[in-house]
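debug: dumping io for the single-chain case to check the tokenizer round-trip. Nothing else runs in this session.
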Amino acid sequence: MDTQKPHDPIIGIFNWCDRWCERCIFTDRCTLFAKEQERKDDYEDPDSPEALMEMFKDSLAESLEALGELAEEMGIDPEEDQDEVEANFASWKEKDKLVTDSELVKLTSQYTSEARQLINGDLLPRLTDELIQQTELGILTEDGAKFKLAEIEEACDVIQWFMFMVHVKSKSAMQSRISDDLEIFPEEERHYNGTAKVANLTIERSIAAWEKLFDISNKEMEEILSILALLQKAKKELESEFPHFQSFVRPGFDE
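debug: decoded output
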């Protein structure tokens, strides 16, 4: 029986989220969000150089701790002799190359590069110019143009938020599968499936945003079709690599 109260912290929820706290309904139940807020509350001006430096120091300390955990995952023990350290590092490098050379990681890396180039280029001016022309020709009303402009801005926000995460989460899932002890947990509880599920969400939301921009462009921007093709290929590859990721239940989100 689930005895968790409605406002109790959800253990580990931040491990399986999209990091978009401003749009999350679970911030009041997330210990990571609470911790970050506490850091900001310690300063009168959290955006001041002094506050940012202190928060950077705290983050650095946590990063060093995380590096220690990573070294442990890689099988590196500071007390080991140099030959053993080098052997473990070589083994980790070999596994990392398998991940980097995988079709999924190549596709998502290509997507990030092409999406960044397009979204930071003349995409937005071209779309807004089209709206202006349609308004001047009487195809759109001013209110209609404002509505479509809001849709463009929203789609661009989504694309930019997930642009790097698509690749990072996909690669992380592949790395996790290599390092996980596959016998400890049943398939539906394995860490890599949770990460793959988040990666899939970032891909799906990116696809929806690009499709919105394509529709607003009156289906005339072939560059967007290329981007969508990459994302669809990445999604199929992810589903092939992790056929059971949908069975993973993310705390809070899928319950």
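debug: round-trip ok. The chain has a mean pLDDT of 82.
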